[in-house]
Amino acid sequence: MQPAFTALFMLLFVLLCFLGILANGFIVLVLSREWRRLGRLLPSDMILMSLGASRFCLQWVGMVHNFYLFFHLGEFSKGPARELFGLHWDFLNSANFWFGTWLSVLFCMKIANLTHPTFLWLKWRFPRSVPWLLLGSLLISTVVTLLYFWGNYAVNQGFFIREVFGNMTYMERVMRMEIHYFLPLKFITLSIPCSVFLVATALLIHSLRRHARTMRQSAHSLQDASTQAHTRALKSLIFFLILYILSFMSLIIDAVGFFSTENDWFWPWQIVTYLCTSVHPFVLILSNLRLREVFRTLLLLGRGF
């Protein structure tokens, strides 16, 4: 790829990250002010603030990591930078996936109209369990991070690879660990929250279809308030699902090592990887009444200047 195109995609990546940082920082700031004012947060606000905070930190870590990797590949490979960046990035990325999953479950519990006893029990229990689910997500992310840290340490030290695969160069050790350790680990640890996300989305789609069929049979308008609430939530969740799966697939493909810093498509691929954490916060702001009103007020103040 021409240097000009590399610089262009690099600039687009930086702009995307800064937009995401601003949007996620806005969510955290508004909800933190609400928490300070009221002394408590709704379960939905807890999830939104946790998700915004993890994405805010993740994008800073990811941006610094990518530029350090691109411009100082030798130091990154031989020094402790790989372990240091990995420690922060793996924890934040795992937490981000889990928080996003609980957001989809919350959508499902609030909007879906199902009568199964298990669903009704979960719908009653879920809001009370949100603080513990968030803490559990942090605990799971910590365990996952330690597993990744051990793999990065093994790559740098070479003791595990040397025993199993014999004498290899550093890049050969990296590729072996990526294929035989990091790829299965990423697939397993990310598939669990992704599966929960898919189940919540499927339940909401099923609820909307059943509700629409009931309205047709009873000759009511499909534009009633309940149907509109279903439809709005479903559109938001499907958009999130597309970004969520795109992020999941990009991380799995990245674990195979297709897009190294020497690859021409390294920076375009980084844009795809961070698309969800940068674009989705704006969807959350526009779909949340409190966030939308504060955002609109800021825009009016900006126009005044």
UniProtKB/TrEMBL annotation:
It is found in: Membrane. This is Taste receptor type 2. The chain crosses the membrane at residues 6-31, 52-71, 91-109, 130-150, 181-205, 237-259, 265-286. GO terms for molecular function: bitter taste receptor activity; G protein-coupled receptor activity. Pfam families: TAS2R. One of its GO terms (cellular component) is membrane. It comes from the Eukaryota. Keywords: G-protein coupled receptor, Glycoprotein, Membrane, Receptor, Sensory transduction, Taste, Transducer, Transmembrane, Transmembrane helix. The lineage of its organism: Eukaryota, Metazoa, Chordata, Craniata, Vertebrata. Receptor that may play a role in the perception of bitterness and is gustducin-linked. May play a role in sensing the chemical composition of the gastrointestinal content. The activity of this receptor may stimulate alpha gustducin, mediate PLC-beta-2 activation and lead to the gating of TRPM5. It comes from Myotis davidii (David's myotis). Its main location: membrane.
